[in-house]
Structure formats: structure tokens, C-alpha cells
Write a sequence for this structure.
């Protein structure tokens, strides 16, 4: 196999963000640098309120920085217009949150399929079904495809949510305290499932409070005083 010199997936430099709440504006991020390569995993630790979710929402293009530079792949997207940012968001990123956000009246497979229905591009019914099953299989719950969330455990529900994030084959998986609502053992399993996505070349940014989960990542960073160290 030829060794490829890959440019980083994500390159943030000097990212700043000030949030304007009811009180005076608060600087949440004051010069964040972060590089993530394909297949790499990064844990972000930091106490509550330190800006971890804010940082993830900037990476995932839900929000935009006030300053600094954001390069995705080889493209400078720092000042990309919102419409294009929204396209990139759904094409390049998969999101996993503490809450699973599954639709109760739909089966696991239908919940995952929602990500294809809402995404850009059109797939035939058969192709869609194959993609959904592959995603459920990847997280180890293909046998639960026809189950609805109320019949699934917390860990199984989170795996459905991860399958939903993976089904569009994102380049980067962003997980914001995905084990926050799970017991330790189930949480470990979910972290392993997230990590397995990196073996297929996905970049993974995991925000967590759990030092054991963080230690499983390739790199552990801490957000403190608006900076990553
Ligand atoms: N929309 C907002 N407007 C103003 N302040 C906000 C907003 N969202 C979050 N904050 C504040 O920004 C800080 C960072 O929040 P957040 O990124 O959610 O931290 P973390 O995820 O590390 O707990 C917190 O102090 C929070 O209260
Ligand atoms: Mg948070």
C-alpha cells in the first residue's frame, strides 16, 4: 500500500467566540487551536461551562467563530455563507448527543433512515435500506432494526443514534457527552462503538467528563480558560 500524506481533516487556529447573554458578553473561547486527522480520535475534557459544547457547535458548523481560521480538508471555511455551511454540516459531520433524540413511534431502522431522507442526495429504496442495515450492523444492533425506542435499553438507543450519525458516512463524528445518560458499562460499549468508526477513517471528537473514556482516545485535550491544552 502506498503511504498517503494526508492533509488534516480539521484545522482550527486561534478560534475565538464571545457569547452575548443577558449580562455582559462572555468570552468562551479565546484562541483555540485544534487539528484532527482522518482516523484520529480526540477527547475534550473540561469542567461544566468551560465551552466544550460551544466548541463542538463551531466545529460542526451550527455556529460560527468571531475570529480565527477554520480549514476543513483543504478548504478555508472560516467565512463560508450559512447556506453552504449547512450543506457541509450534513455532508461532512455526524452528531451524537447525551440525549438520543430518537422518534418513539419509528423503528430503529426508520430512525436511522431519517438521516438519509433529510440529507442531500437521493437513494433508491433498496440502497437506502442497505445503508441503514449496514449502519445498524456497524454499531452491533442489526438484529434490533425493527424495534422501537421504548423497547430498547439506553445503550441500544444511543447505538441507534450513532448509526443515524454514521449512515451518511460523515468524515467527522462529533459526540457531546454521549455517555452522560448511561451507566459505566454501557458507556464503555458506546465509546468503543464510536472508536470503531475511526478505524474506517472517520475523525472523532469526543466531549466527555469520564477520564477512562477520554484515555481511550488517541489524544486527550482539556478546555480551560478558553484554550485547549
Ligand atoms: N446562547 C448562549 N448565550 C449566552 N451564553 C451561553 C449560551 N450558550 C452557552 N452559554 C454559556 O457559555 C458557557 C459555555 O457553555 P458550554 O459550551 O455549553 O459549556 P460546556 O459544554 O463546557 O458545559 C457557559 O457559561 C454557558 O452558560
Ligand atoms: Mg456541554
Amino acid at each position: 500500500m502506498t503511504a498517503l500524506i494526508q492533509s488534516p481533516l480539521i484545522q482550527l487556529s486561534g478560534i475565538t467566540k464571545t457569547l452575548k447573554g443577558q449580562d455582559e458578553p462572555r468570552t468562551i473561547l479565546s484562541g483555540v487551536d485544534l487539528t484532527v486527522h482522518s482516523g484520529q480520535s480526540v477527547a475534550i475534557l473540561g469542567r461544566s461551562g468551560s465551552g466544550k459544547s460551544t466548541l463542538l457547535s463551531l466545529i460542526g458548523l451550527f455556529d460560527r467563530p468571531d475570529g480565527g481560521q477554520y480549514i476543513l480538508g483543504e478548504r478555508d471555511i472560516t467565512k463560508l455563507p450559512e447556506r453552504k455551511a449547512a450543506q457541509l454540516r450534513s455532508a461532512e459531520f455526524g452528531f451524537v448527543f447525551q440525549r438520543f433524540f430518537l422518534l418513539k413511534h419509528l423503528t430503529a431502522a426508520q430512525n436511522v433512515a431519517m438521516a438519509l431522507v433529510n440529507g442531500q442526495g437521493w437513494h433508491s429504496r433498496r440502497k437506502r435500506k442497505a445503508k441503514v442495515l449496514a449502519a445498524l450492523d456497524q454499531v452491533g444492533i442489526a438484529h434490533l432494526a425493527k424495534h422501537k425506542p421504548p423497547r430498547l435499553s439506553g445503550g441500544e438507543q444511543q447505538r441507534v443514534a450513532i448509526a443515524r450519525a454514521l449512515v451518511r458516512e460523515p468524515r467527522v463524528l462529533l459526540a457531546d457527552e454521549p455517555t452522560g445518560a448511561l451507566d459505566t458499562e454501557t458507556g464503555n460499549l458506546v465509546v468503543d462503538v464510536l472508536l470503531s468508526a475511526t478505524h474506517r477513517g472517520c475523525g472523532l471528537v469526543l466531549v466527555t467528563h469520564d477520564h477512562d473514556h477520554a484515555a481511550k482516545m488517541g489524544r486527550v485535550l482539556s478546555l480551560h480558560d478558553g484554550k485547549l491544552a
